[in-house]
Design brief:
It is a single chain. The protein is built from 33 helices and 25 strands. Among the domains are: 240-399, no CATH class; 456-522; 615-718 and 862-892 and 904-941, Rossmann fold, CATH 3.40.50; 723-852. The chain is 52% helix and 13% strand. The chain has a 7-stranded mixed beta barrel with strand order 10-12-15-17-18-20-21. Strands 8-7-9-25-22 form a 5-stranded mixed beta sheet. It is globular and about 100 Å long.
C-alpha cells in the first residue's frame, strides 16, 4: 500500500510540474526571448565561421560562445595572401558592391558614372542596386567607430553575418504573425512554430551560400527586408485599429521599397501580396481597412520610386515598369480592382439603380468591370499586343523561363529537374528526402486546417485537389529522361491540369457556399492564404531556375514545424485512446525526424560555411591581380570573358570591357566571336581597339566554358560552337611493342562539325557533326637510347555502331608542336597527369590528352592560350604574365617538374595575360560598342 501511495504522490507531483511548465509557456515570453537569442548566437556562429581561425582546430560552438577571442585569433579563412588583409569569399558579384562601398567611404558618395565598367561607355551607377554598397559603408562606419583599425574589406566580410542576425529576427516575427491568434494557446503554438522554423532555417544548406561571411550579396540583405515586409503587411492586415494598421502598412511599403533597392527578389513580395489579397477579395474578406492597408503598401514604394527617378538617385526601374512588369503590374491590377470595388460600394455610386439592383456578387461585378477597364486602358496606352504578349510571357515563364544563348549558358539560370532540386531538401534515408516529404505532409495538414470552417467532406475533397496540384507543380518536371520531363504534352497537361482542377474545385465550392449563404470560405484565415501563396510561388521558382531554389529553403521549415506542433496539439487534445496513441507515436516520429534533420544539417552546414573561403584557385587570382596592380598602368583596360570583370576591377584595380553585371550583354557576343574563338588576328584587334583594351586575359576555367562562349559567339548556324574534351590514359590497355608503347586515351565527346577524310585515294570517310563522336586518342611512342619519339596520333571515332581511326595532323607536347603534314587538322595535346596515392603524388608525363578539334584549332584560345601560338597567327598578342596554378606551383617548388597544364581532378592551368600591340591599321568601329544587338543579329542572344 505504501508503494501504491508513493506512486500516486509521484504521479501527482509529475502532473503539477507539467501544469507549471505549461503555465510558464503560456504566461511568460522569457523562454521565447532566450530561445531566440540562442538562435541568433547559433546563426552568427555558423555564418561567421569563414572569419574564424583556420590555422588550428575547427572552432567549436562552445568556444565561440565562451571564448570568442580564441575563435577569432589566428589566421582567418577570408584572407588575401598578397595583401595580408581581409578578403571576400569565392564569389563574383560581391566584389562590385565592395568596390562601390570603398568609393563611398573615400569620396562620400558613388560617382554618377563608373568608368571601370563597360569601357569605353562606362556604367550609370544609378541603374544598379545602390543601397547595398551604402549599407556596407554604414557597417564600416559603425565598426570603425568601435575600432579605428577596421577596414572596408572587413565591413564587407562581416556584413552578411550582421544581416543574417537581423534576418533571423524578421523571419521569426513573420512566421509567428501567421499563426498567432488572440488566445494564449495559439500564442504559445505560434512561438513554438516560429522558433522551430527559425532553427531549421539557420542550418538548411541551400540558404547558406548567400548569407555567409565574405559574401555581401544582394540576397544577404534582401531576405531581411522581404520577411520584414511580409511581417508588417500581415500585422497591418490583422490590426483592427485603423490608424495603427495604416502606420504598419506604410512600414510594409517602406520595407518593400528598400528591398527593391537591394535585390530584384522584391517580386516575391509583390506577387505574394497581390495573389493572396486577390484570393481574400474573392472570399469577400476585403473591407475599407484592408483596402487602405493595401493601397498604402503599394503606393509607398511607387511614389518613392517616382521621387528617386526624378532626382536621379535610383533609375534602375522606369516608372512605367510598375505597370507593365508582371510582378508590380499584378500588384497594381489588384489595387485597381480594389479601388473600383471601393468606389462602387463605398461611395454614392452604390445608390445607382444599375449598381444597386444587380444580382451579381459585389466583388465579382467589381472584378469584371475592372478587367474590362484594364483591358481597354492597357490596349490604348501600350498597344493591342500588350495583353497577348503578357500571356505569352507568363506561359514562357512557366515552362522555359531562361531563353537565349546567353541566359541558358549561365549556370544559375538553368531550369532544374525535381531530382536535382529535391537534393536541397534532405537529408536522405534510403533515397527519401526527409525535409521535402515532411514539409509536403505539413502543407497538407495546414491546408486542411485552413478549410476548417467548411464541411468536412468538402474540405477533404479540396485537400485532395491540393495534393494533386502539388504533384502537378512539382513532379511534372521530374527528370530529363522520364515521362514527365517538363516539356512534353503530358507534362504540361499535368502542370496546367492539376492547377485548373484545384482552381475549379475552389470556384465550385465557393459559389455553392455563396448561394447557400454559408460564410465558411469567407472565414478562411488570411495568414494561411498568404503562406500558401508564397509557398506555391517558391515551389514554382524552385522548378524554374537553380539560383532561386534558395528562396524555398526558409519557407519549407515553416510547414515542417507546423506539422510537429500540430501533431502534438492533436495528441494533447484528443480523448479517444486509440487515436491518442497514434498521434503520440506520430508526434514522436515527426519530432525525432526533425531533430535528425537539424543535427545532420548542422554538421553539414558547419563544414560548408567553414570551407567558404578562397581556394587555391582564388589565391591564384589574388597573385595574378597583384601582378596586375604592380606591373600594368593604372589606365590599363582588360578584356576577357565576362565572368572575371569584377575581380579585375576590384582586386586588380583595372577597368574592363565586360563584367558580371552584363549591362550590355551584346558585347559578350563580340568577345566570344572576335577574341576567344577568333580565327584571325585582325578581327580581334579591331574589336579590342574599339574598346581601348590594352590587355587580354584567359583563365584555365575558360577551357570548360568554351561551350558557353562559343555558343554565344556563334552565328545563327552555330559556326563556332564547340567544346574541349580531355581524355586520360587507360593503363590496362597500354600495349608494349618491340620499339615502344601504344597508349590509348579514353574519353568521349560529340563532334562539333562534320569530318570528311580521304586518305591514299581510299573511300571517303564521312562523320556527321553532333551525331558522331570521338571516343579516344591513340598515341604510339618509340624509345631509342633513352629518347622518345612520337608516331602520328590517331583519333578513334564512333558512328552508328562502328569505330573509325583517323590520323590527327598535330601533336603538341612540352611546348613543341609536331606537324605530321597529313590527317585532319586536329591536335592531340599531351599533358602530364598527377594522382595522389596515399601521402605520395605520382606523375605520368604522358598521362592525359586534350583533344583540340579542327574548329578549336582555328580559334584564339586553342592556338594562343593552350599552344602558345605555334602557328604565329596572333603575333601582336605579347604574353607578359603567366600565373601558375597553385597546386602546380607548389609541387614544382618541391622539384616535381610540371608544365603549365596538368591533369589533376580535371585540367589545371595558368592565368595568362597578353599585352596588345596594335598594328596601327585598326579603326574604331561603332558596331563593336553598340548596345542594340537587333541591328546585327536576328536570333535571341
Amino acid at each position: 500500500m505504501e508503494e501504491a501511495k508513493e506512486e500516486r504522490v509521484n504521479e501527482g507531483l509529475i502532473d503539477k510540474r507539467k501544469e507549471k511548465l505549461v503555465a510558464f509557456f503560456k504566461k511568460s515570453d522569457v523562454w521565447v526571448v532566450i530561445a531566440l537569442l540562442a538562435a541568433i548566437i547559433l546563426g552568427v556562429y555558423i555564418r561567421s565561421l569563414p572569419m574564424q581561425d583556420h590555422s588550428s582546430a575547427f572552432p567549436s560552438l562552445a568556444e565561440f560562445v565562451f571564448n570568442p577571442w580564441k575563435s577569432f585569433s589566428g589566421k582567418p579563412g577570408l584572407w588575401d595572401i598578397t595583401t595580408n588583409t581581409w578578403t571576400l569569399g569565392p564569389d563574383l558579384d560581391p566584389w562590385l558592391f565592395l568596390r562601390y562601398a570603398k568609393a563611398i567611404v573615400e569620396e562620400g558618395r558613388l560617382p554618377e558614372f563608373d568608368m571601370m565598367r563597360n569601357v569605353p561607355l562606362g556604367f550609370e551607377t544609378a541603374r544598379e542596386t545602390m543601397l547595398l554598397p551604402y549599407m556596407i559603408a554604414w557597417t564600416y562606419y559603425i565598426f570603425h567607430f568601435i575600432n579605428p583599425a577596421v577596414s572596408v574589406d572587413f565591413a564587407g566580410v562581416v556584413f552578411p553575418v550582421v544581416m543574417f542576425a537581423l534576418t533571423i529576427l524578421s523571419f521569426f516575427f513573420f512566421v509567428r504573425e501567421i499563426f498567432i491568434r488572440k488566445d494564449k494557446e495559439s500564442r504559445t503554438n505560434a512561438n513554438l512554430i516560429a522558433l522551430l522554423s527559425t532553427f531549421v532555417m539557420i542550418v538548411i544548406p541551400a540558404f547558406v551560400s548567400r548569407t555567409v561571411a565574405g559574401i555581401p550579396e544582394k540576397e544577404s540583405a534582401g531576405f531581411f527586408f522581404m520577411f520584414l515586409a511580409f511581417y508588417f503587411f500581415i500585422k497591418a492586415w490583422k490590426t483592427e485599429n485603423l490608424k495603427s494598421s495604416l502606420i504598419i502598412g506604410g512600414l510594409a511599403g517602406v520595407s518593400t521599397e528598400i528591398m527593391a533597392m537591394v535585390w530584384g527578389g522584391v517580386q516575391y513580395i509583390y506577387v505574394t501580396v497581390a495573389i493572396a489579397t486577390f484570393l481574400a477579395f474573392i472570399l469577400n474578406k476585403i473591407g475599407k481597412r484592408e483596402f487602405f492597408v493595401y493601397a498604402l503598401w503599394i503606393l509607398v514604394p511607387f511614389l518613392s520610386s517616382v521621387l528617386l527617378n526624378i532626382f536621379g538617385i535610383f533609375t534602375r526601374a522606369k516608372i512605367s515598369d510598375f505597370f507593365v512588369s508582371l510582378d508590380t503590374g499584378m500588384a497594381f491590377v489588384m489595387f485597381f480592382i480594389m479601388l473600383i470595388d471601393f468606389l462602387l460600394w463605398n461611395t454614392r455610386l452604390k445608390e445607382s439603380k444599375r449598381v444597386s439592383k444587380t444580382k451579381i456578387p459585389h466583388n465579382i461585378l467589381s472584378m469584371i468591370i475592372s478587367i474590362i477597364l484594364i483591358a481597354i486602358l492597357s490596349s490604348l496606352i501600350f498597344g493591342m499586343d500588350f495583353i497577348p504578349n503578357k500571356l505569352k510571357a507568363i506561359n514562357q515563364m512557366f515552362f522555359v523561363p531562361a531563353v537565349g544563348r546567353w541566359q541558358i549558358t549561365v549556370a544559375e539560370n538553368r531550369q532544374p529537374y525535381f531530382t536535382e532540386w529535391e537534393d536541397s531538401f534532405g537529408p536522405h534515408i534510403r533515397g527519401i528526402a526527409l525535409l521535402f516529404w515532411l514539409f509536403f505532409i505539413g502543407s497538407i495538414v495546414l491546408f486542411k486546417k485552413m478549410l476548417a470552417n467548411i464541411r468536412k467532406k468538402d474540405a477533404w475533397i479540396l485537400t485532395g485537389l491540393y495534393v494533386l496540384f502539388f504533384f502537378g507543380l512539382v513532379f511534372s518536371r521530374y527528370s530529363g529522361n522520364s515521362t514527365f520531363n517538363g516539356e512534353n504534352f503530358i507534362s504540361k497537361f499535368a502542370y496546367y491540369g492539376a492547377a485548373l482542377a484545384l482552381i475549379g474545385g475552389l470556384i465550385y465550392y465557393h459559389v455553392r457556399y455563396f448561394r447557400e449563404g454559408n460564410k465558411g470560405f469567407q472565414n478562411t484565415d488570411y495568414g494561411y492564404l498568404f503562406l500558401f501563396t508564397l509557398f506555391a510561388l517558391c515551389l514554382f521558382s524552385a522548378r524554374s531556375a537553380v539560383r532561386v531554389i534558395m528562396v524555398l529553403a526558409p519557407i519549407a521549415p515553416i510547414f515542417l514545424s507546423f506539422l510537429v506542433v500540430e501533431s502534438f496539439e492533436r495528441f494533447r487534445k484528443t480523448k479517444e485512446e486509440t487515436f491518442k496513441i497514434i498521434m503520440g507515436l506520430l508526434t514522436i516520429l515527426f519530432l525525432v525526424l526533425t531533430v535528425f534533420i537539424f543535427w545532420t544539417y548542422y554538421n553539414q552546414v558547419k563544414n560548408e560555411a567553414y570551407s567558404f573561403v578562397p581556394s587555391y584557385y582564388n589565391q591564384q587570382w589574388q597573385k595574378a591581380m597583384e601582378w596586375v596592380r604592380e606591373e600594368t598602368p593604372e589606365d590599363a583596360v582588360f578584356a576577357h570573358w565576362w565572368d572575371y570583370g569584377y575581380w579585375v576591377q576590384s582586386i586588380g584595380n583595372r577597368a574592363t570591357v565586360t563584367d558580371g553585371g552584363n549591362a550590355i550583354s551584346f558585347w559578350n557576343y563580340w568577345t566570344g566571336r572576335l577574341t576567344l574563338t577568333s580565327p584571325n588576328q585582325s578581327d580581334a584587334l579591331n574589336f579590342l581597339y574599339s574598346h581601348n583594351a590594352t590587355h587580354f586575359l584567359i583563365d584555365s576555367s575558360d577551357i570548360g566554358k568554351y561551350t558557353a562562349f562559343s555558343s554565344i559567339g556563334s552565328d545563327i548556324n552555330y559556326d563556332r560552337y564547340s567544346w574541349i574534351p580531355t581524355m586520360v590514359t587507360n593503363e590496362k590497355q597500354m600495349q608494349e611493342t618491340r620499339e615502344g608503347v601504344i597508349r590509348i586515351y579514353q574519353g568521349g565527346a560529340a563532334l562539333d562539325e562534320d569530318i570528311v577524310y580521304n586518305a591514299d585515294n581510299k573511300s571517303e570517310i564521312f562523320l556527321p557533326g553532333q551525331s558522331a563522336a570521338i571516343i579516344g586518342v591513340v598515341v604510339e611512342t618509340k624509345t631509342d637510347n633513352d629518347s622518345i619519339t612520337f608516331k602520328q596520333p590517331e583519333g578513334v571515332f564512333y558512328f552508328q555502331g562502328q569505330q573509325t581511326r583517323i590520323p590527327l595532323r598535330y601533336l603538341y607536347i612540352k611546348g613543341e608542336l609536331i606537324d605530321f603534314k597529313s590527317g585532319i587538322n586536329a591536335t592531340a595535346f599531351i599533358i602530364q597527369r598527377i594522382d595522389q596515392v596515399g601521402q605520395q603524388v605520382r606523375k605520368d608525363d604522358l598521362g592525359a590528352v586534350i583533344y583540340l578539334s579542327p574548329r578549336i584549332m582555328r580559334g584564339f584560345l586553342g592556338q594562343v592560350y593552350l599552344l602558345d601560338d605555334p602557328l604565329k597567327n596572333f603575333p601582336n598578342f605579347e604574353l607578359v604574365h603567366t600565373e601558375p596554378n597553385l597546386i602546380i606551383d607548389n609541387l614544382n617548388s618541391q622539384g616535381m617538374g610540371l608544365s603549365d597544364f596538368v591533369y589533376f581532378q580535371g585540367v589545371q592551368g595558368p592565368i595568362k595575360i597578353w599585352e596588345i600591340n596594335y598594328t596601327g591599321e585598326e579603326k574604331f568601329n561603332p558596331m563593336y560598342i553598340d548596345r542594340d544587338r537587333t541591328k546585327y543579329i536576328n536570333w535571341t542572344l
